[in-house]
Amino acid sequence: MKMNKQCLPCLVNQVVKMASMTGCLNQDELFHQFFAYMSQVDFTKTNPEIIGEVFDMVKAYIHHDDPYYQLRRDYNQMFLKQLNQLDNQIHSFEEAVKYAIVGNVIDFSPIHQNVQKDMMTYFQNMDQLSLTINHVERLKEDLMNASSLVYLGDNCGEICLDLLLIKRIKAMNPQLKIYFVTRGKPVVNDSILEDAYEVGMDQYATIISNGDGSLGTILSCVSQEFLDVYHQADLIIAKGQANFESLSEEDKNIYFLLMVKCDVISRYIGVKQKSFVCLSQKMR
User: Which is higher by pLDDT, 25 or 191?
Assistant: First the structure.
């Protein structure tokens, strides 16, 4: 889906966050560069693609290729310490899906003491958490009949909960070939190759990058290696709102797992904000 005009205030706000979190000293100059870029931006692009380009601008301006490195590590380590406990709390495939979606609550904001508390509140109330769109049984059936799965990851920290879901998918269908896909280079706190290896994703899946630094999965920008895997896959699981924005018009057997975080996506899907969804592209 192309960028919506309602995305503009959010994009500006995200640039302000980036400037603050990356320790940019001359923020006014960076904002001038950003608005010069926006004056010529192609609005047929998706919001995740535009954010990727803006983040490249920020990295070039501050001369740092991975300004969110420590933030990614902190999120991963925070959830890795709880992984066994969380694993033991999951008693069904649907619960594993819900835990993975709850991980999507993590967004790129400074890590603070309340993050773990907020996430544990969700985990402690999983029995009361329902999926507004629940295509889990169809997903389970497709996974049992598939030969290959491409799992498109999203944020750090969240990747640990993806791991718990992929572990159960592999147990359900041991013959299933699973590819876990990261971003091709650092973009805010999204997972890259080293994050996937850090959390042990290679125990259950072949890890590849998509070769691109957009926030989602922009098929016109990704590597040929990724495209070959993507087009040959029987099934795609796409995590997060950026992947939904990128692939919502694709004619593929895609399941979107996400928390709906904004009004644009809320209206597009037809659910309230903060809804948790497991949405089959084929059933939209």
Answer: 191
- Angstrom distance (rounded) from CA 183 to CA 195: 10
The stretches of the chain forming alpha helices (DSSP H) are 7-21, 27-38, 47-62, 69-80, 83-89, 93-103, 113-124, 136-145, 158-172, 193-198, 224-232, 241-247, 263-269
Partners of 259 in the β-ladder: 276
CA distances from 158 to 78, 184, 218 (A): 10, 18, 21
127: exposed, middle or buried (Cβ count in 10 Å: 0-12, 13-18, 19+): exposed
User: DSSP secondary-structure letter at 281?
Assistant: G
Which residues 6+ apart lie within 8 Å of 38 measured at CB? 11
pTM for this structure?
0.92
Of 35-44, 100-109, 167-176, where does the model show the most confidence? 167-176
- Look up residue 198 and give its two tokens: 């850090």
133: left (phi over 0), alpha (psi -120 to 50) or beta: beta
Which of 138, 66, 57, 146 lies closest to 97 in space, CA to CA? 138
Query: SS3 string of 101-151?
Result: HHHCCCCCCCCCHHHHHHHHHHHHCHHHCCCCEECHHHHHHHHHHCCEEEE
Query: What does the pLDDT look like over 85-142, one tens digit per residue?
Result: 999 999 999 999 999 999 887 764 444 445 666 777 778 888 888 999 999 999 999 9
